[in-house]
Design goal:
Rossmann fold; about 180 residues; six-stranded parallel sheet; about 25% helix; globular
């Protein structure tokens, strides 16, 4: 079962929200300046397809301050997301914060704007939603929105684990461990 804990079943949720970098895709320190080098982990496609086929609603909530920093335009990020969807053979909804961390917006995690947007789009409530991510910001956004949180140990997850003020709903080596919680 990997690093899972608590025995909480994914069956209690209808909406699975995923962070992108470090959770679904390899994380890069250079903000993926070359978006053609943005790739999903090998387990991402089978996991997303399995949960989509099982009837779960899927969303990606991602901070992309590289847009505000001038690394790319929003359209370039959306093109990269369409390529990922072809790679994964599934199309989750994407919710993007394009702002700089200093902008003070309400959508950049740990703020809850992206999570609320995803729940609104899918007609889901916090208690029916599970946020899965690798950062303290992901954890704090989930907690503030009232939803449960699954920490993945990919990306920054191993470092984040020691920063959490309380235990997450589940700890997963990778998102592939979600299947052991069904």
């Amino acid at each position: 079962m990997g690093a899972g804990n608590g025995g909480r079943s994914v069956k209690m949720y209808r909406l699975l929200l995923f962070d992108r970098d470090g959770t679904l895709t390899y994380e890069r320190e250079d903000y993926h300046r070359d978006l053609s080098r943005l790739f999903g982990y090998p387990f991402t496609s089978p996991v997303l397809k399995a949960f989509h086929t099982a009837g779960y609603l899927l969303a990606v909530v991602t901070n992309q301050s590289g847009i505000a920093r001038g690394y790319w335009k929003l359209g370039e990020v959306e093109t990269a997301h369409r390529r990922l969807c072809r790679e994964w053979d599934v199309t989750p909804s994407f919710h993007i914060c394009p702002h700089h961390p200093d902008d003070g917006c309400d959508c950049r995690k740990p703020a809850v704007g992206l999570l609320n947007e995803a729940m609104d789009v899918h007609g889901s409530q916090p208690e029916e939603s599970l946020m899965i991510g690798d950062s303290l910001g992901d954890y704090l956004a989930a907690r503030e929105s009232g939803m449960h949180f699954g920490l993945v140990l990919t990306g920054r997850g191993r470092v984040t684990r020691s920063q959490l003020p309380s235990l997450p709903t589940m700890v997963l080596d990778t998102i592939a461990d979600l299947e052991s919680h069904v």
